[in-house]
Amino acid sequence: MVTTRDSAADLGTSVHIAQPEGALRVIIRGDHGTPVLLLSGAGNDNISLSWRRAIPVLATSYRVIALDWPKQGGSVPWDGTADHERMLAAIDAVLEHFDLERIALVGISQGGALALAYAIERPHRVERLAALAPAGVLSFPPVVHQLLWLTAQSRFLHRTATSWIFRSRAACSWFARVGLFGGPVDEFDEIVDEYHADVLAHGSGSSDWQNGSIGPLRMKVDLRPRLPEIRCPVLIIQGSKDAGVRPEHSRAAAEAIPHADYVLIEGAGHWSNRERPEQVNALLTDFLAA
Question: Which terminus of the chain is less hemmed in, N or C, by CB atoms within 10 Å?
Fold first, then answer.
């Protein structure tokens, strides 16, 4: 097994929350203001990759808690399946550990979907939420959907093959350019190095949540019918050149939520939080302070 340094160690204090399947690692920083829980995406994402530029900014005004999902970053090893309900329970565990009744949620991609789902299922616990390019509001054409479902059913396709391919730094660099970013990124080489190191340490592939969210005929996790139930203020941030979540999907989601604002960042891709950190941090700071 390849060992790597803890890339999030310099972002705050690490806390490990014991669970039956393993331990959830969170980074905490800031000791005043509204508690804000940051939720990363899927695959080889983690606290450092998603929130390196956001944590220091938000922690000047808020009590920031950033979560590594099960099987991700510092929440490895994990003995069990991290499906939709288990991921919601991971958020419960964080709130219970820190004795929090209500919290603000900020999530990207998979984390954005779970933030929206948490506001639907536990509305009394969410003060407000921001979702960056949220999953859970997508659908795919026939044939494409079935191909994605077949991939999700095959460990070789969604784990073994991708782990082998992305052991190459060049493959990680290519994926970042076409899948994560819409244009130039100041910290591109640093991000690719960190992403590649995570692949070498943990392998690569889609998450249990992603694999479990798609059924043979339709999405198993489709939040769209229940989005009108969300009552807290919501901000959806979307890159116009996102290759994973198309702007029309996230805009339709925002229009379905009663108290939602929608911001389209022209030229940005899926990881707008790393591609345009100053702009995204300003949007988050203004929204959380409203």
Answer: N
